[in-house]
Write a structure and sequence with these properties.
Probable_transposase_24
Length: 168
């Protein structure tokens, strides 16, 4: 990887590339940086990677629709680190991570139909498992556990995701 930049610069650099594709130059850019970006964009490997990534983003995944996440340039690992930090250093389960990564911040909805079905199925399984917990000695349901362990939830997510991959 030749260029590494802050997340916020991605939109700016994409805008610069669009300007370059129109055979123009942005007003406020260092000449040396501009020339280096052009050299990078003109490489066959860069163009091939760009085409491949574009096609992957636009793929309908065998009729399941386009892949949609809301992480921008943030990796799942970085998102997990942020969630752990926000959770006072305590680990978070994969279901929380998936929900955070794929929920549209404006609409509050998971746009990706495949991911939405994974989340729905895991949540249904969680509810079923919790409702099957034994009642307390006095017959009161408040004695039943209301939480599943991180490991239990992660295993549920893994099984659902792996099953989905086999169905593709």
């Amino acid at each position: 990887q030749e260029f590494t930049w802050e997340f916020g610069l991605t939109e700016t650099i994409n805008a610069w590339k669009t300007v370059w594709q129109k055979n123009k130059r942005p007003q406020y850019i260092n000449g040396t940086v501009w020339e280096q970006l052009i050299v990078h964009w003109e490489k066959n490997d860069t163009a091939a990677t760009s085409r491949k990534n574009f096609n992957n983003r636009k793929s309908d995944r065998g009729g399941k629709g386009m892949y949609v996440h809301n992480l921008s340039a943030c990796s799942m690992s970085s998102m997990e680190d942020q969630l752990i930090e926000a959770n006072d250093g305590n680990p978070v389960d994969r279901l929380q991570l998936i929900k955070e990564a794929y929920t549209n911040k404006k609409t509050g909805q998971i746009q990706d139909a495949v991911i939405r079905s994974v989340v729905d199925l895991v949540e249904t399984q969680k509810e079923a498992l919790l409702s099957s917990q034994p009642l307390s000695d006095d017959g009161d349901s408040t004695g039943a556990s209301t939480n599943l362990s991180l490991l239990q939830i992660n295993e549920m997510v893994e099984k659902v995701v792996l099953k989905g991959k086999k169905d593709v």
